[in-house]
From TrEMBL:
Localization of this protein: Membrane
Source organism (scientific name): Dicrurus megarhynchus
Keyword Glycoprotein attributed: yes
Gene name linked to the record: Dchs2
PROSITE patterns: CADHERIN_1, CADHERIN_2
Protein name per its UniProtKB record: PCD23 protein
Gene Ontology BP terms: homophilic cell adhesion via plasma membrane adhesion molecules
């Protein structure tokens, strides 16, 4: 960084300072001085290695590092030293108050080898000691006096200078030794006056030793030998009288050496008694003027400044060269006239303010103010706005410095204005103007509608979309709050701050496959302007439903002897899923030995695959047993889901089998004496068919012409109906039919 300094009068420093800032790790902590500024004093006659004072920096808690000290600036001539371990500051060379009365040192502390420093300012006042005596400009001088000069006449002005300051540099004048009591001296001004008349007839020469003594402790003294000689025969009986005006004017911008005033005094005496010299007794302490003691021409000795001092009052003495000398005094007033040499200065170099947007033109913004140290018309200020971005939107009162708007402002178009203002004699100030926001914009969604697809197995609390709405306003007016205004059936919610839409419950496409609702973006103002967007959420299917048979157990029948591919029954299984997840395929899982049956995989129609014979297999059970069949319904999802159902198929009998006697012939022997009604025998036939087809009726179709026997048609039992006679008939042959 480059740092410049400027005093209150606007004068910049002759050179700039370079400042290097090292960015250190935040964990480093320096040793901090107990005070940010130390003040010490040391007399200028202090010997070398004299202790001036001690600075102390405290290390951080728990630190084991040692603090060291060094002087980093303020001592270009090496007049001071500091103990690096204890911080004791000592003199290293002889000091001189008159050369430098105040020393400002910057002392740094370092903790171990850390790159981190802390610093403190040490102000050392070099106190004055009385080491300089008053010094006369000359060691001796001669003055002539006249016996006619009255008491009180100033005959000489002694002047000595002392380099010391304060009381050590304050001078008192006195007469150290004298041959006569005819003289006295003003102790402050050094003016030598006559105390009585010196008679001419004595023709005496006087020698005075004038002492200049300072007020130090102990005081120092210098002597001036002053010789008064040769009393003039001419009588110096007239004092000088001023002829020139006691008032003079001078412009403040005149150069050094400019003639300000011609002081004229007349003395009617003759010879040296009438020769006048001019002297400034007081009012010229800052040595702004030089007076030629012979000609009386008063000129400037340095540059004048009306703003620093606009009036000088000089006490001027006109002294003749008589013996004794006579004098007269005059107070000369010099008025320093102003010229327009001061640049106006703004009270602040940077003004910052704010104004609300959308206000009518003429809205007060701020008042800027500058001062000019000149006087009169030179101090009257005229303000104007310098051209720049947006400056046309403002007006500046040229007299008062009041800034108002010239147009209605819009924060969203331009929020910050940087304006430069200038009075007529070039001084500028920067104005940063912030336009305050009003809620004149509604939040706007990036899109008027959104459509998004999510799977139905989405976890509860998952974010499905981040809504984004922008509001050109600022602050609370531009903070967007999100909400939903339509029923989402408890499925979705929105984060009011981020606009993130999240699921709030498990989704089920089979229950609801689409959600449509509106989202609202509002800002935080009391007017609540808002915008809406339409959300459409499509629920995509996942294979989460098993195909389900309408019945878990089916019954069906089929006539035996049917040709292959005869439809038996159609089963149905439903799957609530969609697409491939809901497409059902049918198959026979088990129990279909010899591939007796087949099923249409798409339609679920169960049919015969071969001819059926009731007599071989009476029924097939599609159940989960090792020798039975199961019907399987599977979907086409990934992974596939399935379910089973049992089907009982009864094969219906066809009368395709005749009854068959257990024996083709029955041989029975019976006695002729068997009584009527006796059971002779029983025939038996079987029919492989079933039901009525298997119900057998027995009849005698031949051999029982005379009715000897009776046949039970249901049981096949043969009973005797007539008495037998061996001698009549030995053998009967009955033909019995089973139907």
């Amino acid at each position: 960084l480059t740092v410049s300094a400027q005093d209150g009068g606007g004068l910049p420093s002759a050179s700039n300072a370079a400042v290097t800032v090292n960015i250190l790790q935040t964990v480093l902590v320096p040793a901090i001085f107990e005070r940010s500024r130390y003040t010490f004093s040391v007399p200028e006659d202090a010997p070398e290695d004299s202790v001036i004072g001690t600075v102390k920096a405290r290390e951080p808690p728990n630190s084991l590092e040692v603090v060291s000290y060094r002087i980093c600036s303020g001592d270009p001539h090496g007049k001071f030293s500091i103990d690096p371990q204890f911080g004791i500051i000592r003199t290293k060379k002889q000091l001189d108050h008159e050369a430098q009365s105040v020393v400002v040192l910057t002392v740094q502390s370092q903790l171990g080898n850390s790159p981190l420093y802390s610093s403190t300012q040490v102000n050392i006042s070099v106190t004055d000691i009385n080491d300089n005596p008053p010094v006369f400009l000359t060691k001796s001088d001669k003055v002539t006096i006249s016996h006619t000069q009255p008491p009180g006449t100033a005959v000489y002005i002694a002047h000595a200078e002392d380099k010391d300051s304060g009381l050590n540099g304050a001078i008192k004048y006195s007469i150290a030794s004298k041959q006569s009591n005819a003289f006295s001296i003003d102790p402050s001004l050094g003016v030598v006056n006559l105390t009585r008349t010196v008679f001419a007839e004595k023709q005496q020469e006087y020698t005075l030793h004038i002492a200049a003594e300072d007020c130090g402790n102990p005081p120092l003294t210098s002597l001036l030998m002053l010789t008064y000689l040769r009393l003039l025969h001419y009588i110096n009986d007239n004092s000088p009288s001023f002829m020139s005006s006691p008032l003079s004017y001078v412009m403040e911008d005149v150069e050094v050496g400019f003639l300000v005033h011609h002081i004229i005094a007349k003395d009617p005496d003759e010879g040296r008694n009438g020769q006048v010299t001019y002297h400034i007794l007081s009012g010229n302490e800052n040595k702004a003027f030089v007076l030629d003691k012979i000609t009386g021409l008063l000129t400037t000795a340095q540059l004048l400044d009306h703003e620093v001092q606009e009036r000088y009052s000089l006490t001027v003495m006109a002294l003749d060269d008589g013996s004794p000398s006579l004098s007269a005094t005059q107070v000369l007033t010099i008025i320093v006239l102003d010229v327009n040499d001061e640049t106006p200065v703004f009270l602040k170099q940077l003004y910052e303010t704010a104004v609300r947007e959308n206000q009518d033109p003429g809205e007060f913004v701020i008042k800027v103010e500058a001062v000019d140290r000149d006087a009169g018309l030179n101090s009257l200020l005229h303000y104007e706005i310098l051209p720049g971005a947006g400056y046309e939107k403002f007006k500046l009162n040229s007299d008062s410095g009041e800034l108002v708007t010239a147009a209605s402002l819009d924060r969203e178009t331009q929020e910050v204005f940087s304006i430069k203002g200038s009075p007529s004699r070039k001084s500028t100030a920067q104005l940063y103007l912030t336009v305050l926001d009003e809620n004149d914009h509604s939040p706007l969604f990036a899109k008027t509608q959104y459509q998004i697809s999510v799977t139905e197995d989405l976890e509860e609390g998952s974010a499905i979309l981040d809504l984004s709405a922008s509001d050109k306003d600022d602050g609370l007016n531009g903070e967007v709050i999100y909400s939903l205004i339509d029923d989402t059936y408890g499925a979705f919610a929105v984060n009011s701050v981020t606009g993130s839409i999240v699921s709030t419950k498990a989704l089920d496409r089979e229950t609801k496959s689409q959600y449509t609702f509106r989202a609202v973006a509002s800002d935080c103002s009391t007017h609540f302007p808002r915008s809406t967007t339409v959300m459409t959420v499509l629920i995509q299917d996942v294979n989460d439903n098993v195909p389900k048979f309408e019945q878990s157990y089916y019954k069906a029948s089929v006539w035996e002897g049917q040709s292959p591919k005869t439809d038996i029954i159609q089963v149905f299984a439903t799957d609530l899923d969609s697409g491939l997840n809901g497409e059902t395929e049918y198959s026979i899982l088990s129990g279909n030995e010899n591939a007796t049956f087949l099923i249409d995989s798409a339609r679920g129609i169960l049919a015969t695959n071969t001819g059926l014979d009731y007599e071989n297999t009476s029924s097939y059970r599609f159940v989960s047993s090792s020798h039975q069949l199961v019907l399987l319904a599977s979907d086409r999802g990934t992974p596939s889901l399935n379910s089973t159902a049992a089907v009982l198929i009864t094969v219906l009998d066809v009368n395709d089998n005749p009854p068959v006697f257990s024996s083709p012939e029955y041989h029975v022997h019976v006695k002729e004496s068997v009584p009527i009604g006796s059971h002779i025998t029983e025939v038996s036939a079987k029919d492989c068919d079933a039901g009525t087809n298997a119900e057998i009726t027995y009849t005698i179709i031949s051999g029982n012409d005379r009715g000897h026997f009776c046949l039970d048609g249901r049981t096949g039992s043969v009973n005797l109906m007539k008495t037998l006679d061996y001698e009549d008939t030995v053998k009967f042959t009955l033909i019995i039919q089973a139907t």
